[in-house]
Design goal:
Layout: E1 3-10, H1 14-25, E2 30-34, E3 48-49, E4 52-53, E5 58-59, H2 63-81, E6 86-87, E7 91-94, H3 98-107, E8 117-121, E9 136-139, E10 143-145, H4 147-160, E11 164-166, E12 174-176, E13 181-183, E14 186-193, E15 213-221, E16 230-232, E17 236-241, E18 244-248, H5 262-275, E19 281-290, E20 299-302, E21 309-313, H6 319-336
Parallel strand pairs: 1-2, 1-14, 2-11, 7-16, 14-21
Antiparallel strand pairs: 3-10, 4-5, 6-10, 7-9, 8-9, 12-13, 13-14, 15-18, 15-19, 16-17, 17-18, 20-21
Helix pairs in contact: 1-4, 1-6, 2-6
Amino acid sequence: MNKEYDFIITGQGLAGSLLAWFLLQAGKRVLVIDPQLENTCSRIAAGMIHPITGRRIVKSWNADVFIPFAKATYKDIEDKLAEKFFEDYPVFEIYHDIGHRNDWAGRSASEGMSEYVKDECDATSAPKGSKAPFGGRWVVNGGWLDTRRFLDTIQRYLQGKNSFHKGILNYEEVKFGKEFITWGEYKASKIIDCSGVNAISHPLFNHLPFKPCKGELLQIESDGLPKDCILHGNVKVIPLGGYQYICGATYDFNTIDEIPTQEGKEKLRAALEKIIAPAYRITGHFASIRPSTLDRRPLLKQHKDQPLLYIFNGLGSKGVMMGPWMASLLSAHLVYGEELDVGC
């Protein structure tokens, strides 16, 4: 006899975890299938919510919608599951030079930036342990998600509801009917692929505009860095608790593997030593593949040929910020039939 569910989700990364949460809150029966690997993109992630984007110093796409919803979602999950994995850390943006300072001064006056871009600091008032000879500026209303702890928390929640299966779903073993799909002993009305980078090479999804990107991170130990804010220059330095920090990340669109490299380590060290003064010790070096897309917009859609199959993928480096809102849209579509139109 088949074990019946409303939805099967393949992949318990950030996308799959958030979608499962919203579907379960709506009272649906959900099964999440995941191989429980350690070096996935969602587990090896900086986890930062940053309202300002890159060298152009502009507000991130849909930040006014994504950020408050994301923060409310993570805090709601924390409250309901009695866990802690989200911090409202401010970000200290370190100026590279006088020109960079002038760019920030000009951009911060743009409409809609005042909610996020706050006080400027000179070198004498910069956070302890930072190197900021040209000063910097505070950015607020972002935050940091401990993605590993978040995923572990959601996995325990799923296991407690008999909604987790350790394994890998092979689509060649899936039978698609008119109203249901079956996979082994399991039956569901729809299947949603949230398998991250694993979807890129699959024949069902290789027509989609993926642009995978390798990223490397360092974990460091230092007793001279701030514990209540994020430092941001060419890399981010994020407190993990105690004297541990995560530093990253690199972006490599040419080498698509999950092997940490000496080149990546040296690049991170060079960038790190430009913005911090204290001695530090490297305690970890990690690499993973982000399932990014050509236009940096997430993939949130029904399969063009198979109406019982959906994909929720391509969150990239902004996944912690975009993921909750996107997951809620897909959940509302699957549960209530609301239109799925997010411009992607």
